[in-house]
Specification:
The structure is a homodimer.
Chain A (H helix, E strand, L loop, with lengths): L2 H15 L4 H17 L1 H17 L4 H7 L3 H16 L7 E6 L5 E8 L2 E6 L4 H12 L3 E5 L5 H17 L7 E3 L5 H7 L8 E5 L2 H10 L12 E5 L5 H13 L8 E7 L3 H14 L3 E4 L11 E2 L2 H4 L7 E7 L2 H11 L4 E5 L3 H10 L4 E6 L16 E3 L7 E3 L5 E12 L3
Parallel strand pairs in A: 3-4, 3-6, 4-5, 7-8, 7-12, 8-11, 9-10, 9-11, 12-13
Antiparallel strand pairs in A: 1-2, 2-16, 14-15
Helix pairs in contact in A: 2-5, 2-7, 3-7, 5-6, 10-11
């Protein structure tokens, strides 16, 4: 099927999906979950091909790990779909309702976005996950996975489509672009006529490519150059565990801390504690002039370090004279993702909350909490780092739009 | 000043504007309104140059009219700014608040978008209007007006900037790109580092150019191929005035009706009435096979007619066998703006409201009501025809984003 025909069929499917009842959607999701478990031998044999190709192409072990599926991962995939079925349906919610002096009754009603395109990299579980979230929120979805996982993605998509068909729902509610040629992906990013929004999920490079080449509206997700600022009024016993957690609990994620900012008034007491904690956790420190001598083994931080999302056992350190200087430093170098202040001073806390330009701003907590599940949304399609449409963790509601439904009795405009 | 420096200065200004109190913003807006009236001789002499250039370049009379300012229009411009000052401030609103089982207290707070770029055509009053709306919603704004109105736009922007300065507010809260070269506009559309959103205001061609060339998120506004569907259960006494109003009250606007759809069961009684009304209002009718013989002087509608926003005294007519066929026809040809059904049948009304894919869907009312003022928003920056971020009339709230402010007591993620 040509790309245009595939987009057209998704566009037709959206009118069907958006009118499904909550029950119809949930029944279909449960059927998909069962089918994934039942079809695991098909998925595993397709995945074996991808893994073999990966080895052949010299893919490094971390990537192979992310690509590889097993019984447990397929079960988790199905479980994820079941969890989405259990979530409340956002569609149809009356978000606002008012009457105008001329008698027009206006309702603002939550509706699906329409057709959502997801462009992602090698983890094949995203295929089932992205389908479940977009389908439950009443959308049709077009998936463009990485070429590394193409066999796995085809197997998973076919199982989902068959399960939809068995429920009497058009299988084109989910489509996979099977052609892994880059020119096809590029063309996909200009299918404005059929696709309402593109959500890239993956590396900073992938996201930049989509932003630069797409004429379809994009929701940017996922790059996080997150800071922890230890204020002069910080409780140092809280600061150290928060930094260790934010830096080391999972180094490869966007919510990991990449930089420490420290108020100079507490540098002499705090930095030796920090130095010890980083040493124990095997974290390399790149420090500015004001902090380097207090941190064992620290190397000099360059300008480039402050703008870097390491995704590694590395952290930069910056010394400041005030909370305002910390805020200014963050707003200059951050990616508007997650930032935290450690302080006992209410005034500094509020100033930081108000003035730091980021999706999620924390007082006395780890940046690792920026997550749809941790926020209680029950799901997450990604974390938006832009300000348009949605910011921060995106759950089902963030995959919707609204329309105004207006009832009159013959009103005309004067 | 180079484009990059101009964008940088707006980006710095955003951190100041977003932290102004409501009082500070309102005082500045009132000072701007006074300054516009006080500076009217400067504005008028600049405008005279633009109008003279327009005549010289053979600009047609309708455009000259839109371009020309006079005492009354400048007063109206100032009044518009005062009205925005009187509107409630959207910034700081707590949109949601909840506590997680781990004790984290999460607040979703309304914040400005940041830096907004407005690209518009010849009407110079947009300069003051766009400044007032973006400033009141806490944003810095970069304006790129049409070259036809460049002298007027410079005069108006300078008056606004001087008034801001006199209130102790950085004048870079508003900037005008004075270089009218197309390459500069094109470069502006890729200034993602500094600009959070672009809003084009003007013709369908302008909007398409921005959508196709911008890497910055765009809010599409304003093309309206609007339909009126007269159902078999319509009250024909309501239908005729609604059609006349929607088609002829202002032919050049996006809320004007461009197409009539009629149920075949009432075609014989309704179309003669419609024919008479269109004749009286000098509206040309382009009709399909099922309706042409019943409409005096109607010519054949082509496929192209159904997709056309005439913005003229022309209307197309399509006959259908059911409300579903009407819905399907609309979803195929419309621009997702405003659509209306005339019916006394509740089931058909609800079906139309639910299934027509448009920002505003009406029952028994004119499509002309899609407007920020008519909706009670007190202002309007444009009407969004996309589904991302905002849909339909956009007031002050639609010029905002949100952030999550999270307070903890040392929480780390397990």
């Amino acid at each position: 099927m040509s790309l245009t025909d595939l987009c057209k069929s998704a566009c037709e499917a959206k009118y069907i999906v958006q009118n499904l009842s909550t029950d119809e959607k949930n029944r279909a999701l449960l059927a998909v979950a069962d089918a994934l478990v039942d079809g695991k031998s098909k998925i595993l044999s397709a995945n074996e091909k991808d893994v073999a190709n990966g080895h052949e192409n010299g893919m490094h072990q971390g990537m192979i790990d992310r690509l590889t599926l097993d019984d447990k991962r397929i079960k988790a995939m199905a479980e994820g779909v079941r969890e989405v079925a259990a979530l409340p349906d956002p569609i149809g919610e009356v978000m606002d309702e008012f009457e105008r002096p001329n008698g027009l009754k206006i309702r603002k009603v939550r509706v699906p976005l329409g057709v959502i395109g997801i462009i992602y990299e090698s983890r094949p579980n995203v295929t089932a996950d992205a389908f479940a979230l977009t389908f439950k929120s009443g959308n049709a979805v077009i998936l463009k996975g990485g070429s590394d996982a193409i066999n796995s993605n085809i197997a998973i998509t076919n199982i989902i489509r068959d399960a939809l068909k068995s429920c009497g729902i058009c299988e084109t509610a989910v489509s996979l672009i099977e052609d892994t040629d880059r020119s096809v992906t590029k063309k996909f990013m200009t299918m404005n006529e059929y696709v309402d929004v593109l959500i890239p999920r993956g590396s900073a490079g992938l996201i930049r490519t989509v932003v630069e080449n797409s004429t379809i509206p994009v929701i940017e997700t996922g790059t996080g150059n997150c800071h922890i600022y230890v204020d002069k009024d910080a409780d140092l016993d809280k600061a150290i565990p928060i930094i260790i957690n934010a830096k080391t609990q999972r180094i490869g994620v966007c919510t990991a801390a990449e930089s420490l900012i420290v108020h100079e008034d507490i540098r002499d007491t705090f930095l030796p504690l920090f130095s010890k904690a980083m040493k124990e956790n095997k974290v390399e420190v790149r420090a500015d002039e004001g902090s380097r001598s207090l941190i064992e083994g620290a190397v000099s931080a360059t300008e480039e370090d402050f703008g870097k999302e390491y995704l590694d056992y590395i952290i930069s350190v910056k010394t400041v004279k005030s909370v305002d200087e910390a805020i200014e430093h963050i707003n200059r170098y951050n990616t508007h993702h997650s930032e935290s202040i450690i302080t006992g001073n209410e005034e500094s806390a509020q100033r930081f909350l108000d003035r730091v330009d980021a999706a999620c701003v924390y007082v006395n907590a780890s940046t690792r909490f920026t997550d749809g599940f941790e926020f209680g949304f029950g799901a997450e399609i990604g974390i938006s780092t832009q300000k348009l449409h949605a910011r921060g963790p995106m759950g089902l509601k963030e995959l919707t739009s609204y329309k105004y439904q207006i009832r009159g009795e013959g009103q005309i405009r004067g």
